[in-house]
Amino acid sequence: MKKSVLLFAAVMVAAASAPASAATDGTLSGSASTGTLNLNVQVDPMVSIRGLDDISLTIDAATIGSNFGTTSGISQFCVYSNADALGSYKVSVNGLNGDGLGNPYGLSGNSSGTQLNHTVGYYDAAAYNSIAATFMRPNVQKTMENTRAGQNRATDLACSNTGGQNASLRVGIRNSVALAALADTYTGTLSVVVAVP
């Protein structure tokens, strides 16, 4: 009796560790024959960023007098992530280094060769929120999600189910920085890198 119990237990362990049933052949029949096959599809984590717009700003006396301390421009765009139900992702914003303090990014003067430093804020919703936004620094990743502020997770690369946009970025140039700068056109490029968390 003890041997039969052990044999039964061994069979059960083998069955539990065996792979799922494989495809089966149909039998010869004069009317119908049925074969079966198993399907196994793996969807890997993926991320995408699309729809960024260039930002162009003009800072003059009128701007300085009415901008409440900072001249800023916003780009709204789409980030896709299927990593989880929240659409989680990591993001970094990279560019020319600024002063390393309150203005972490920089732009280069085309004529003067001097630098105009600025800030970058990132918010993982289409409507930029300066209070809830994340203060970014070059080459530093931050964790974000598609579903911030009641948004739905993007289900295609164009964020069609969220109005085409689900994230926003703001470039800010403080008045103190602008007033200290030489008159010039300052240019640069920001690289927004999204990654699987």
Automatic annotation (TrEMBL):
Signal peptide (residue range): 1-22
Protein name stated in the entry: Secreted protein
Keywords, in A-Z order: Signal
